[in-house]
Inverse folding.
């Protein structure tokens, strides 16, 4: 029986080409992802381990006991001396770490937070990758990634601000590769010599002591000796342990990437599964007589079943093997391109092709193929032996009508989906909202599968009306597309999956962007926002963490500018409520709340705000049992509590979170909060944008650490982030769409095979080759349009539902341009899908086709 | 390819025949075996084939499906081509109809040399000037009977002669079956649809390839009567390939083929004369 199967496979090889391609692409995605993620992981490990295994013992200050809420006590010079004195160690070095402000080429502070400033006191696990480490007060080394981002190289002069914000110039002598450790790679890092670091940043004590084992001692013995010497002050690990721990804790991003990619791989495999199912279903239908003949000569049902499954297993295995090969290539290429971006290391590790990656690809591909062939295989067993003796009817390929059960089931499913969506609409945004919407989409999708044949028939009838006028080729195409609606529906649904996800995401993305932009504009009609760079000053354990503020001179300078209409400052402080929960108390200086700054209140009116009143976030009001007009108490530590009238309740999503006070009340209650954390600059009406920009930058010229953000830039950044996300996701979904197009092409090709005699008849009756090709093109385009159309409708619907389940007051934006592109792609896909079948149909000889049964 | 043969304009030879519906053929007087091809009529023949050969290369051996056939068919004549299996009768029909190209020799249709025409020109020729009835699979399953009948006109974007349509439909008895899909029609009805389609445009010649092969004898007789009547009443030229002596007996003339050669001919045949000739050929 197996021999028959294999012989059949060899004979019909060409029928499986597109199926193989579909599986191949899906498997390629799966194993490509695995190889990609594994290689990235190896990159991480290599770069982390590389530095850590350079030393044998690494001591870090022990974390304080839990109740104490402060940072670990750094190790001291005495500790370092002790370690150096140990007979088990050959050498030891200490690592001092602080932060300094580094100015970029334009004289503005580098990064959102100041980069780490470190000094190496003796040999440590880091060394210069290029050039040399700084040896005196005029020299500096930069982290490789920092140098690249800021555009500095060895020999350049860079400016660093010391703790009093005085500028100091250094010459770059070397570059240090800090690898992926976020302590250094997060905000960048600079290396100074120990003495200079103390002067510039005031840092003392070691955040790490690294030791190299003396000859004759293992790293374990050295680490144990260091641990014994330092006692409870430090936690000690061998270099290898340290590296492994680091790799494990920072390997997470690659795992996230792996999961995200596998999700898309899953979608591709799902679509491939639909394509495979359809191919086998059609092949079984076409081979009825062959199967019946097998049964006539004595094959049992189980043998027929096994034969079909064996066929699918062989096809699946071969295609998966090819897919794994292709996937390995793609994974290696991908990690070579993306690797340096993700890990920050220059030299990518060798490609890692684990047996797991290979086996997963093979297993997933084969399993999906065999499972997809299960139903067709069962159908194959139902073929009666008598069929072999029957002559083929003229009605070959025509399906019976779809039953009422189908209509009923489909209607129930759609109603269920609608009910789920209605539920999310009625409850508003909740945690469960997106899950419910996803569930609704899945239910509705099952509905499409059930109703598919009817949908195809209906859509063909509607779309066919104009096409029927276009000529005989189009008319025949319309008739053809409706003749086996079940087959057409399955082919189309593969495309619907991709189209739904693509449209859904584009609606979500566009709506998100519109909503955010609208909120930004509504709540903040400002041009510029000034933030201080994050804290420079080390705060003692007793002090409140100081919130950095924008210097008052900046505000004064801006207020005098003619191009500036107004400057608002944001001030906040924290108080603790009676029940122990913290409450942010804030105010906006220089702004009339409700006029200059406004938002839609949940209850009451923001414009009713004034002295003696408070804007409160809903849940605080609820906790206190206060409504609009009631009195709310804001506790003031070391002062008299404020008794305020609630003016309005907000949802806390906009500019008013916690409790917002009038400026006068705030200043009276919290006189110590006298700095603006953020400054908002409102340009004068009609002011030249360039002049305004110049004025803003002139105001902060003496304060390089103040970061200037413009509303336009923020919007631009936001939309460019959204765009990148959109194109990435579109590219990832693209593969699923390509697979679906293969499926449609395959369905067409198999139908053409089935209609060989029909095509010959048409040609005999005088249909030109080009008309025959056009007929198939129109049929394929029609199929693609219906598939994409349903997908687009679903995408818009569920995109809308998804946005509504997440955002309270979303502005739905349907990206018509993108949808037009999708439709164009669908037409193009249909044309492409019909190329091969069209050639085959037009190329067949008429007499040959008429003669063959 | 030879440049002068492009186009469908007649190159020399007899001028294209003018439809003369008045010319009704009288039954032939030749009833006894004739060893020589007898001239059927004085009017110029519609289809003329000269020296047709068709050779197939099947690996090592060469098969001569046609080994030099000279034959002509006259307006309004109903001719049957007979012969044992493998005698080349289907190949002859395919070459005559422009479905297949002969290895050598010429075929003229109404004065137009069709050998040497390009595919596109052959397509137009078939569309506008030839009708077909095949043994099986004559109809497109997704079109109704009416749509199937009108299909060639639609392909050609030709206005339909509704009167002729009504007349033909009436004659073949399909009037109340026009809206049915082929699957809902009996084999005989399906074949009648095919005949109606072939006759609708009054093509210069109708080729029928075993039109009764799949039918019971009563349905078959009906189809053959339609073909015979259309030749007599509508002056329609019909060429039919068959291996059934009874079917052949409906024709005005039977030509016999063996091993790719025209070997015999009977005018005004009966089933018995045809059978006996066939037996002689097969012997």
């Amino acid at each position: 029986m197996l021999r028959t199967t294999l012989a059949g496979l060899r004979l019909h090889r060409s029928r499986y080409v597109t199926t193989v391609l579909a599986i191949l692409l899906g498997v390629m995605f799966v194993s490509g992802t695995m190889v990609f993620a594994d290689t990235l992981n190896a990159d991480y490990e290599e770069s982390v381990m590389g530095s850590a295994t350079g030393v044998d013992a690494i001591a870090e200050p022990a974390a304080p006991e839990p109740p104490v809420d402060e940072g670990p006590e750094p190790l001291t010079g005495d500790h370092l001396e002790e370690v150096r004195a140990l007979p088990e160690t050959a050498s030891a070095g200490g690592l001092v770490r602080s932060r300094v402000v580094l100015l970029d080429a334009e004289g503005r502070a580098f990064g959102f937070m100041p980069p780490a400033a470190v000094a190496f006191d003796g040999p440590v696990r880091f060394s210069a990758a290029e050039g040399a480490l700084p040896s005196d007060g005029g020299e500096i080394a930069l982290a490789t990634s920092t140098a690249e981002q800021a555009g500095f190289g060895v020999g350049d002069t860079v400016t660093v601000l010391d703790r009093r914000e005085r500028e100091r110039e250094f010459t770059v002598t070397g570059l240090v590769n800090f690898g992926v450790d976020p302590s250094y790679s997060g905000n960048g890092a600079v290396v100074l010599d120990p003495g200079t670091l103390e002067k510039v940043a005031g840092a003392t004590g070691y955040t790490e002591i690294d030791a190299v084992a003396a000859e004759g001692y293992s790293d374990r013995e050295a680490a144990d000796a260091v641990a014994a010497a330092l006692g409870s002050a430090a936690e000690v690990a061998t270099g290898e342990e340290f590296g492994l721990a680091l790799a494990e804790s920072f390997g997470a991003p690659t795992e996230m990437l792996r999961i995200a990619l596998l999700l898309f791989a899953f979608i591709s495999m799902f679509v491939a599964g639909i394509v495979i199912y359809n191919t086998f279903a059609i092949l079984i239908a076409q081979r009825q007589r062959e199967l019946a003949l097998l049964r006539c000569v004595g094959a049992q049902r189980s043998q027929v079943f096994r034969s079909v499954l064996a066929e699918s297993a062989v096809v699946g295995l071969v295609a998966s093997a090819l897919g794994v090969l292709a996937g390995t290539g793609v994974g290696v290429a991908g990690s070579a391109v993306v690797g340096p971006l993700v890990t920050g290391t220059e030299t990518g590790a060798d490609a890692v092709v684990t047996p797991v990656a290979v086996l997963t690809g093979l297993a997933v591909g084969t399993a999906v193929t065999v499972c997809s062939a299960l139903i067709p295989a069962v159908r194959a067993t139902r073929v009666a032996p008598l069929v072999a003796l029957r002559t083929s009817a003229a009605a070959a390929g025509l399906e019976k009508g779809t039953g009422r059960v189908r209509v009923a089931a489909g209607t129930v499913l759609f109603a269920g989906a609608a009910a789920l969506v209605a539920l999310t609409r009625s409850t508003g945004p909740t945690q469960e909202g997106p899950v419910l919407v996803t569930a609704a989409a899945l239910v509705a999708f099952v509905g499409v599968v059930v109703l598919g044949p009817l949908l195809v028939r209906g859509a063909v009838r509607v779309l066919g009306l104009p096409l029927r006028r276009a000529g005989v080729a189009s008319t025949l195409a319309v008739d053809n597309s409706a003749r086996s609606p079940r087959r057409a529906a399955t082919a189309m649904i593969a495309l619907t999956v991709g189209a739904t996800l693509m449209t859904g995401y584009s609606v979500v993305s566009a709506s998100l962007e519109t909503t955010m932009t609208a909120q930004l504009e509504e709540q903040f009609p400002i041009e510029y926002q000034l933030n201080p760079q994050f804290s420079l000053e080390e705060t003692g354990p007793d002090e409140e963490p100081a919130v950095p503020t924008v210097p008052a001179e900046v505000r004064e300078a801006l207020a005098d500018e003619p191009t500036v209409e107004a400057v608002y400052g944001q001030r906040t402080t924290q108080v603790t409520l009676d029940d122990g929960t913290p409450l942010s108390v804030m105010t906006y200086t220089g702004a009339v709340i409700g006029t200059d700054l406004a938002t839609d209140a949940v209850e009451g009116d923001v414009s009713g705000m004034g002295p003696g009143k408070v804007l409160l976030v809903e849940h605080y009001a609820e906790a206190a049992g206060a409504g609009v007009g009631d009195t709310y108490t804001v506790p003031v530590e070391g002062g008299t509590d404020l008794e305020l009238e609630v003016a309005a309740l907000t949802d806390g999503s906009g500019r008013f979170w916690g409790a917002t006070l009038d400026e006068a009340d705030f200043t009276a209650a919290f006189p110590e909060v006298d700095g603006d954390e953020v400054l908002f600059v409102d340009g004068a009406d009609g002011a030249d944008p360039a002049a305004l920009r110049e004025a803003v930058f002139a105001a902060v010229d003496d304060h390089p650490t103040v970061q200037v953000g413009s509303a336009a830039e923020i919007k631009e950044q936001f939309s460019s982030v959204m765009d990148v996300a959109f194109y990435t996701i579109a590219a990832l979904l693209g593969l699923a769409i390509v697979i679906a197009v293969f499926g449609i092409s395959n369905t067409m090709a198999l139908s053409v095979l089935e209609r060989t005699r029909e095509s010959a008849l048409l040609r005999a009756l005088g249909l030109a080759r080009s008309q025959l090709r056009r007929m198939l093109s129109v049929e394929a385009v029609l199929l693609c349009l219906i598939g994409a159309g349903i997908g687009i409708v679903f995408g818009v619907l569920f995109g809308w539902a998804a946005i509504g389940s997440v955002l309270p007051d979303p502005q739905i934006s349907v990206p018509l341009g993108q949808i037009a592109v999708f439709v164009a792609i669908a037409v193009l896909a249909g044309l492409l899908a019909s190329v091969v079948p069209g050639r085959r149909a037009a190329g067949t000889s008429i007499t040959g086709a008429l003669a063959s049964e | 390819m030879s440049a002068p043969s492009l186009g469908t304009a007649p190159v020399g030879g007899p001028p294209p025949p003018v439809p003369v519906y008045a010319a009704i053929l009288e039954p032939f007087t030749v009833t006894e075996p004739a060893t020589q091809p007898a001239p059927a009529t004085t009017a110029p023949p519609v289809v003329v084939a000269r020296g047709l050969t068709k050779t197939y290369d099947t690996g090592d051996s060469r098969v001569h499906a046609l080994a030099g056939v000279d034959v002509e068919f006259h307006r309004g004549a109903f001719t049957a081509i007979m012969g044992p299996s493998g005698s080349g009768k289907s190949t002859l029909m395919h070459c005559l109809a422009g479905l297949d190209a002969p290895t050598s020799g010429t075929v003229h249709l109404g004065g137009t040399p069709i050998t040497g025409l390009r595919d596109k020109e052959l397509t137009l020729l078939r569309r506008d000037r030839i009708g077909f009835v095949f043994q099986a699979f004559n109809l497109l399953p997704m079109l109704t009977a009416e749509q199937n009948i009108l299909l060639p006109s639609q392909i050609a974007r030709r206005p339909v002669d509704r009167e002729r349509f009504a007349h033909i439909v009436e004659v073949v008895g399909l009037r109340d079956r026009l809206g049915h899909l082929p699957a809902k029609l009996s084999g005989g009805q399906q074949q009648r649809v095919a005949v109606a389609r072939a006759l609708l445009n009054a093509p210069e010649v109708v080729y029928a390839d075993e039109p009764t092969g799949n039918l019971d004898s009563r349905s078959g007789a009906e189809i053959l009567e339609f073909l015979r009547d259309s030749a007599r009443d509508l002056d329609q030229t019909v060429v039919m390939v068959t291996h059934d002596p009874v079917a052949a007996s409906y024709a005005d003339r039977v030509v016999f083929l063996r091993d790719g050669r025209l070997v015999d001919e009977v005018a005004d045949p009966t089933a018995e004369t045809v059978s006996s000739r066939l037996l002689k050929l097969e012997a």
DSSP finds 26 helices and 21 strands in chain A. Residues 391-398, 538-544 of chain A have pLDDT under 50 and may be disordered. The interface with chain B takes residues 391, 393-398, 471-472, 475-476, 479-480, 482-483, 757-758, 761-769, 771, 845-847, 850-851 of chain A (CB under 8 Å).
